[in-house]
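Ex. 9. Protein: DNA excision repair protein ERCC-1.
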Amino acid sequence: MEVDDEERQKQSAGEGEVEEERENERKKSVVIKIPSYQEVFETSQAKPPPSLFRPSSSFAEAFSFIKNSEFYSTPPPPPTSSSQSVPSQVNSASRPSEASCSSSSASASVPSSAPSLSVHNRNAILVSHRQKGNPLLKHIRNVRWMFADVVCDYLLGQNSCALYLSLRYHLLHPDYLYYRIRELNKNFKLRVVLCHVDIEDVVKPLLEVTRTALLHDCTLLCGWSLEECGRYLETIKVYENKPADIIQGQMDTDYMSRLTHALTTVRHINKTDVVTLGSAFGSLSRIMDASMEELARCPGIGKTFV
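Predicted structure tokens for DNA excision repair protein ERCC-1:
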């Protein structure tokens, strides 16, 4: 019996040693990997969402889905008599090939910055082929325009251009304006973003357009109708070679008019009060140095309670 107990103790001791060896091997096989600082930093950075921008080749293609809606109706055919009284600028716009042939090879390959425009194209707005089908073109009546291969939407001069953007289109493609401005590079001194406000809730999308225009040194012009947008393009083209003092306000040279202009900017001071103060003190410096008691002696000048 004692022999059997010793054998059992040896067997149990052997089994315990085997289990300890297995446990040690199991601990050695478990490896805890500690990530490096670069891996932790990369995983903590928020990845930007993928861009959904898919630019359209033309204005008509971008808004082609409107024809499939229930609100679209086929326009009536134009009358036959209208072909005799079509303006010359529309004829030149509808036949870009004839205009390009008459101006030799200059209009056929107009560079992006347009450093040298021919005499035929210099007095006209060059419209990109992207704008085919844009109803804005119907409202450009006082200035000639024609299609040409230009990077911008509307080439208004040698150093000025314009990009057309509809807020409704901006909601569908938020990255469109950024990519179009990036295509212009630094080739133009005046870069106008002509924004057509065609939606009701304009606060958030107009804020995004304004931020993009300011960050890329662009001038933002907002029009609430296509007629207004066309008028902006016509005005910029007409005043292309005009000096800046034309749009500046006229200021009188006499001292009393300048004193009236300066003092009437203060609230509750009208032109009669300016005459009273001017006759009492004689100059703006004396009015500024006058005390409250001296000003109160002037008729019409005193304490104002709101």
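Check your answer against this statement. The CA atoms of residues 56 and 62 lie 6 Å apart.
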